[in-house]
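Practice problem: predict the structure.
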Amino acid sequence: MSQSPRGERFFGLFLSVAGSLGLIASLALAIEKIEALINPAEALSCDISVLVQCSANLESAQGAVLGFPNPFLGLAGFSLVLCVGVSVWAVPRFARWFWILFNLGVGAAFVLVVWLIHQSIYALGTLCPWCLVVWVTTIPLFLFVTGRNARAGVFGPVAARIGAAVWPWLTLATVCAYVAVAVLAQLRLNVLATIV
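Answer:
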């Protein structure tokens, strides 16, 4: 099942917006990390409270999974998402292998984000504001890229039928994922008690 040109344009817009949001958050985190290296004694601008802060996340081992700060992964990854989003407007038909590789990249980002959510809530006990933007962006990015590719037949005819069936439910799935993260954070960190 091929995507309609109008549907692909909306999908390109979605990718462009998601890529831009993730890029902004990654850039802000990268700047905060550089500031922390230059002025280690100074509090970061995103350190709002003991619970809501960037410092604990950026200074932890989890903040540099591949040996360098995670925000630099975000700068590269979200730049690619933005580039693909803009490209969909100019070249609406990409090869099947392109979409598979793109989906694998977005899937890897999703797995990393799920792990970072777990680490942030259960190991570090903090919620990083800019990290939250990355989470909020990556979750629907993975769901909608996978749903689009399944519906478009990238993964075969059986997946195309499944993709067509689940496509209308992806927004609800995204909201449910957000609620699940919020409930986990509340149960573990008692976020509401610190706000009230």
